[in-house]
Amino acid sequence: MRDGLTGALRDAVRVGPLRPGTRLPSSRVLARDLGMARNTVAEAYGQLVAEGWLAARQGSGTWVAERHSPAAAVPPSARPATNRVRYDLRAGVPDLSDFPRAAWSAAARRALGEAPHDLLGYSHPRGLPQLRVALADYLSRARGVVADPDRIVVCAGFAQGLELLCEVLRARGVATLAQEAFGHPKHRAIVYASGVGARTLPVDAHGAVLDELGDADAVLLTPAHQFPIGVPLEPSRRRRVVEWAVETDSLIVEDDYDGEFRYDRQAVGALQALAPERIVYAGTASKSLAPGLRLGWLVLPAHLIDDIVEAKETRARLSSTLDQLSLAEFIACGAYDRQVRRARLSYRRRRDRLIAALQHLAPQVHVTGIAAGLHALLQLPAGQDEADVVARAARNGLAIEGLNAYAADGHRHRPALVVGYATPPAHAFTAALARLCTVLSTHS
C-alpha cells in the first residue's frame, strides 16, 4: 500500500498535477481521507523527500520541491516505446495513422479563411462559441446529452477537465470523491493532488458497485464502458446512482471517453440526460480523432459554470483558437460523423479478428469487454501470472499492460491483460496479433 501511494504521488509530481510549491495535506489528513495508516503516508512522504520530489520542514509541512529540469509530463502508459518494442497493444490510443489528415486540413483551411480577425486573439475560457454550438448539436443527437452551448466549457482533454472540477469542488467544501477501483492511474493522481479525499468503489460484471458510496460528495464513473474492465453500468445501478445524487445533493462526473464506439447494438446513451443538474458530462476527441489535439469538453450543471470558467481563466488554461475553429468546422460539415462511422467499422473488424485469432490459437484465454470501445480484457487461465505474461510479451517486442496496473491500492482482479487493439497502425495489426497469440500460447 505504501509503494502504491508513493508511486501515485511520484507520478502526480512528474506528470504535472502536483506542481512545484504545491503544499500537500498533512500525513494525518491524507491518511484519514485515503483510509490508510498514518505511518504509511508518513513513510511515503519520507521516501519522496529522500528522492528529491518533495521537501519538508518541521512545523511547515510538506510541499512539492522545485526542480530546475522537470521531467516531461508524460504518463507512464504513454511513454515512447523503447527500441525493443515493435508493436504497441496498450490501451487508450486510437490508430494515429488513421487520422483524417486531408479532411481535417480542408476544414482547417475553411475555418481559418472565414474567421474574423478578432477570433485569433486570446480565446475565451469557455471555448469558442462556434465549437460549443457544434458540440451541443453533436452530443445531443449522438450521445443523448442535454447540451446547451452555454453549458459547455472546452478544455485540453479530460485530465484538465478533472483538474478544474477537483479544484472547484475542493473550494466548495467537497470532502470525498468516489472513484471506480479500476481506472486510469493519472486520474487517481489528479484527485490525490487536488486535496479532495478519495474513495474507491469495487467493480464487478455489472459496473461500479455503489454500496460503498457512503457519505461521498461526488463520484467519477465511466458508465457507458467501464475503463478498463469494459462493462456498461447495469441499468438498475444507473438509476440508483442518479437517485443518490438527487437525494443527497451530490455530483456525478461522467467520463464518456469512448461512448461512440459500440459495435453490437446502439451505443448506450449518456447518463447525463437523466439528471443534467447533478451530472457533469465529460467528452474528448482523443479517441475519435487523436489525443494530440488536446480538445475535450465539459457539459456542466448551471451552478458550476461560473466557477469552472473562473478557475480555467485564473491559470490561463486556454485552448488553441485554431484547433477549436477547425474542430467546429469538422463537426459542422459532417466530417466528424463520417470519421466516427469509418473508425467504428475499422475497429469492429479488428475486434473480430482478435477474437477469432484467440479462439483458434489461445482458446484458454477468456475475452470480455468486447461490446464497445477500443480495447478488450483477456482473462488469463489459471496458473498464468499476469506480470510474467507482460514480461514475456516485452521480450517478444510487444508492449502490453496487465489489468492490475490500473487497480487502486487494495483492489485486485484475477490475472488479465488489457489489450488496446486500436493502437497499432493497420499495416502492423496482423503481426501484432500473431505475436500476442504466440505469447499467450506459451506457458513459460
Descriptive account of the structure:
This protein is of the alpha/beta class and 444 residues long. Helices cover 41% and strands 14% of the residues. It contains 13 helices and 17 strands. The strands form 5 sheets. A 7-stranded mixed beta sheet has the order 4-12-11-10-9-5-6, sandwiched between helices. A 4-stranded antiparallel beta sheet has the order 13-14-17-16, with helices on one face. A hairpin with a 7-residue loop joins strand 13 and strand 14. Helix 1 crosses helix 7, helix 5 crosses helix 10 and helix 11 runs parallel beside helix 13. It is globular and about 60 Å long.
Largest sheet: 7 strands, mixed
Strand content: 5-15%
Low-confidence stretches are 69-83
- Give the overall pLDDT as a whole number: 89
Helical percent range?
40-55%
User: Can you write the helix and strand succession as a string?
Assistant: HHHEEEHHEHEHEEEEHEEEHHHEEHEEEH
Overall, the morphology is: globular
Backbone CA Rg: 22 Å
Number of strands: 17
Strand order of the largest sheet: 4-12-11-10-9-5-6
Distance between termini? 29 Å
Structural class: alpha/beta
How many helical elements? 13
Q: What keyword list fits this structure?
A:
444 residues; alpha/beta; 7-stranded mixed beta sheet; 4-stranded antiparallel beta sheet
